[in-house]
Design goal:
- It is a single chain.
- By secondary structure, the protein is α/β, with parallel strands linked by helices.
- It has a single domain, classed as 3-Layer(aba) Sandwich (Rossmann fold).
- The protein has seven helices and seven strands, in the order H-E-H-E-H-E-E-H-E-H-H-E-H-E.
- It has a seven-stranded mixed beta sheet with strand order 3-2-1-4-5-7-6, with helices on both faces.
- Strand 4, helix 4 and strand 5 form a beta-alpha-beta unit.
- The chain starts with a helix and ends with a strand.
């Protein structure tokens, strides 16, 4: 689904940077379409990248990348692991290496999302102690505007941690509806679920005028 969202909104047939892509499974998908750089600080992940996505170019530090060198930047479940002050410095580098007209795709847990409301303290995003920067979709939008980006599309990616309802009847009715809507969006790769209607928030952004 994320691959198809990237193709829909970000694919300009130019190089793409995946920031914090781990061992390279998504980079492998992206190499079907474009030249891929993957910035990953973990040495084990970079070694795995060479096996999983050998066509991707491993980058240890953004400062080594050339100015105006990529047409899109992707980070899937990365930003919530980094505090805002460090993110501001990272986004300054993003601004430097992104070409004019570049697009950005970011996915993070949504603190104001329906999944958190349903699960409360049992929400899956709370189980990872490295999630040090959990925000709601409005707070993330304010942060992106503060670093010079404006949303092109903002939507939820659905529900994945069933059950959500507390009763059998609720699971039969409401969880079935959640599953159906998530499945339809997945199959169509269209932004059908509005911000706040799921586990995570998806942002497609570009530079503000």
């Amino acid at each position: 689904m994320y691959e198809r969202f990237w193709k829909r909104y970000c694919d300009k047939r130019g190089p793409v940077l995946e920031f914090g892509g781990g061992v390279g499974w998504f980079a492998r998908r992206l190499t079907r379409h474009a030249k891929v750089f993957e910035c990953e600080s973990n040495a084990f992940a970079r070694e795995s990248l060479a096996q999983i996505a050998p066509e991707a170019i491993a980058v240890e530090d953004l400062s080594t990348m050339e100015t105006d060198s990529v047409s899109s930047i992707v980070a899937l479940h990365v930003l919530e692991h980094i505090p805002d002050d460090a993110l501001s410095a990272i986004f300054a580098e993003f601004d430097r290496i992104a070409r004019p007209g570049a697009r950005f795709m970011f996915v993070m847990p949504d603190l104001d999302g329906a999944a958190h409301r349903a699960k409360g303290e049992g929400w899956s995003a709370f189980t990872d102690p490295t999630h040090i920067n959990l925000k709601g979709h409005d707070a993330w939008q304010a942060f992106f505007r503060s670093v010079g980006l404006k949303p092109v599309q903002t939507f939820a990616d659905g529900f994945y941690d069933f059950p959500y309802a507390q009763t059998l009847a609720g699971r039969a009715v409401f969880d079935s509806l959640r599953l159906a809507r998530t499945g339809i969006q997945f199959l169509l790769a269209r932004p059908l679920l509005k911000s706040g209607d799921g586990e995570n928030i998806v942002f497609i952004l570009e530079r503000a005028e």
